[in-house]
Amino acid sequence: xVSTAVSKMGTTELIFxxxxxxxxxxxxxxxxxxxxxxxxxxxxxxxxxxxxxxQCCISSFEDTIKQLQQEAPDFIGxxxxxxxxxxxxxMDYKVWNVMQQRVYxxxxxxxxxxxxxxxxxWNSLHQNxxxxxxxxxxxxxxxxxxxxxxxxxx
Length: 154
What we know:
Elements: E1 2-3, E2 6-7, E3 10-11, E4 15-16, H1 25-45, H2 58-71, H3 90-103, H4 111-124, H5 127-146
Antiparallel strand pairs: 1-4, 2-3
Helix pairs in contact: 1-2, 3-5
């Protein structure tokens, strides 16, 4: 698993999960989010942070929401974010598509090669890829609202 963040102010580095680590809610919230993603996004994006917390487990979910509300005042909480909304996740619907096309141009023979290829492609991405995804986000949000949070495409 790889995590990262994008903004019009820049992007974070890729954050890789330790090989063999089981990513459960506690690991996601206590390690990935608390120890790595929050610091990386705040260094990159200052106070304007929007994070997806859909992988947090129920027992740590409320604490994570409280922490995000304190650390990122503009955090959009789950009460305002429609469930199961892949078209509202910039990384899922736009940025990872570009990454996937570029990463798999060449055959890789190991996890280390794949990891290095991901880093190389990520570092070579122009800011306009993130900007285009961000610009499209409002259009996607409008479509979601018009569909009354029901299924919609493009």
